[in-house]
Input
Amino acid sequence: MFSKFLEEAGQKNFRISQVNHAIFRDLVTNFSEITTLSEDLRADLEEKQKFSVLEKTKHVRSKDTEKILFKTDDGKFIESVLMRHKGRKTACISCQIGCPAGCVFCATGKMGIIRNLTAREIYEQVLYWNRILKEEYLEENPEAKWNGKNPPHEARVRNIVFMGMGEPMFNYENVISAIKFLNDDKKFGIGVRHITLSTVGIVPGIEKLLEEGLLVNLAFSLHAATNKLRDELVPMNKTYNLDVLMPILDKYTKKTGRRIFYEYVVLKGKNDRREDAHDLGKLLQHRMAHLNFIPYNVNPECGDDLITPDEPEMRIMQNILLNEYDVPSTIRMTMGDDVDAACGQLANKADRPGNKGKIVSIVEGNFEPACDI
Ligand code: SAH
Ligand code: SF4
Output
């Protein structure tokens, strides 16, 4: 973060480690709190370096979900969600402002691509959550002293999902740098098995990830089990269709020994029919797969013909998959509407008044293993 500046200022490695420790472990909120540094050096940092590249502009909470709207240095908005499930904290983070993939049901996609986030803009979202969790912990435990070396597990983000705004594979280098920061034991210390990258299926990106050896969990946004239907819902399918995607996903499973989470936004009358369930079954049987049905969250910008499905239809699909094809699935319930807990929604609102945006489904039940294994 500030390593380069400190190096150039002739600071020794141990000083750089001290700064990193103060920022990532002690979770200081400004340079003047880094008391291990001389006053001169603190003043120099304050004058010449930005402590943050994101500004928290709005923070909304509901029972288990909260969301921050950040403003970037160039006046754009991004958002990040924190989900609390059985005491475990999962941060859903953004990697782009907008997205070029244009999936028909997605508000972020409707924005088009504005720009990629830098690695720092990506991991700083998590840094904010950790600071909030620390503050909360100290408020609840007034006697406790903060131990940055070994922070209490309930007071730190445990899982990361790249399911906010943007397509990680289109911002590959910065996403990987951010993952390395998140994974670094001296910084966030989050294991790769606790990091889930969600992709609409960009073959060169998945290939690079395989070579990288940074084997995070993979979630694949499937949405349709045949190329014909997927072409309609996910324009990227015309570039990387299921015939090329499935073998590369199989390779990923083989290398990690872990199942892939298939995301399926359910649209009434479009992909929630019995035949869709059979297509899904045929595609996923004999694969290490877990399917997440995500009921479509209405986004008026995406048009009137996209409708939220009825629960019984999804249950029928679930039963067909399990009983006839032995494919496990979960229906991800949507919550958090009260806080607009939606990846894509707040940022869209801030940017374009009147735009409702996509509501992210707040993860429930079996989604958890994606971040837990
Ligand atoms: N670009 C990546 C990650 C961000 S999107 C990807 O597509 O996987 C994260 C998730 O939000 C995806 O599974 C996507 O399908 C879902 N999503 C997008 N729009 C939605 C909507 N209107 N309702 C419900 N889920 C939606
Ligand atoms: Fe982009 Fe994902 Fe939205 Fe598709 S669902 S437009 S890939 S952010």
In short: Confidence is low (pLDDT under 50) at residues 335-343, 352-373. Residues 139 and 292 are 36 Å apart (CA to CA). Residues 99, 105-106, 163, 167, 198-200, 221, 263, 265, 294, 296-297, 299, 358, 360-361 surround S-adenosyl-L-homocysteine (ligand 1) (CB under 6 Å). The first strand starts at residue 54 and ends at 61.
